[in-house]
């Protein structure tokens, strides 16, 4: 490793790798990640790269054995352990491509632990490319400095979500017909929680009644204006993080 890195550590490239990291580990990269480092970032032998693996935190590495289409990253030392993740799930009805990508990115940036796609009667998208959405989450984590990735689970129908809901987890749902002010509701119910956001057309009356009847559900309002689904997801998540002291 050279005495003087090619750029400061805090501005060096940062990548998620799906391999265990530790002192002395050597990570061989090819494909898109190698292309990014070699062709976009112009990494040379000895240049600094930061890595995280969603398990052990963030590590400092340097490039070695750099070739035209692949390279090796030699791990030098740990920069910080894996972050403590706030215990918040975001349960959100899938929305159109582009908008759902934005929701995934912002949920990752804001610190959500788990993202649960929820299928409702008015959901306009019933198929999701989870691999593509996970790639968006990884990119967001790389850019915003997260050392933990949100868990993106398989879509679930609303009825099944409510039936299997854990008793110790509050379920805050954005109800356009009214409810408690969101920030007040969240501060009054600390602990493990989830936020439920409906589809672009909202929950239908029967669904809304079923949610309200659930013992862990707390209806809340996000203010006097009607928000798009993706805006409601980000706003509610930010409010919960603020109420929980994460901000």
UniProtKB/TrEMBL annotation:
CDD domains noted in UniProt: RsmE-like (cd18084)
Q: Which reaction does it catalyse?
A: uridine(1498) in 16S rRNA + S-adenosyl-L-methionine = N(3)-methyluridine(1498) in 16S rRNA + S-adenosyl-L-homocysteine + H(+)
Q: Which domain of life is it from?
A: Bacteria
Record's Gene3D superfamilies?
A: 3.40.1280.10, Hypothetical PUA domain-like, domain 1
One GO term of the cellular component aspect? cytoplasm
Per its database record, what is this protein's job?
Specifically methylates the N3 position of the uracil ring of uridine 1498 (m3U1498) in 16S rRNA. Acts on the fully assembled 30S ribosomal subunit.
Q: What is the protein name stated in its UniProt record?
A: Ribosomal RNA small subunit methyltransferase E
Species the sequence originates in? Sphingomonas hengshuiensis
């Amino acid at each position: 490793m050279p005495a003087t890195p090619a750029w400061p550590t805090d501005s060096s490239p940062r990548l998620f790798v799906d391999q265990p990291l530790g002192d002395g580990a050597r990570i061989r990269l090819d494909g898109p990640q190698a292309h990014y480092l070699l062709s976009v970032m112009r990494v040379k032998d000895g240049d600094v790269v930061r890595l995280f693996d969603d398990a052990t935190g963030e590590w400092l590495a340097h490039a070695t054995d750099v070739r035209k289409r692949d390279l090796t990253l030699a791990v030098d030392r740990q920069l910080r352990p894996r972050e403590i993740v706030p215990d918040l799930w975001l349960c959100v009805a899938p929305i159109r491509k582009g908008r759902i990508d934005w929701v995934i990115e912002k949920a990752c940036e804001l610190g959500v632990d788990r993202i649960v796609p929820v299928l409702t009667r008015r959901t306009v998208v019933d198929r999701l490319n989870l691999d593509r959405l996970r790639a968006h989450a990884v990119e967001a984590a790389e850019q915003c400095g997260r050392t933990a990735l949100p868990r993106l689970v398989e879509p679930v129908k609303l009825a099944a979500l409510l039936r299997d809901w854990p008793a110790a987890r509050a379920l805050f749902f954005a109800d356009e017909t009214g409810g408690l002010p969101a920030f007040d509701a969240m501060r009054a119910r600390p602990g493990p929680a989830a936020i439920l956001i409906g589809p672009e057309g909202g929950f239908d009356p029967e669904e809304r009644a079923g949610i309200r009847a659930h013992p862990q559900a707390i209806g809340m309002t996000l203010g006097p204006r009607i928000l798009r689904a993706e805006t409601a997801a980000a706003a509610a998540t930010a409010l919960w993080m603020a109420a929980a002291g994460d901000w």
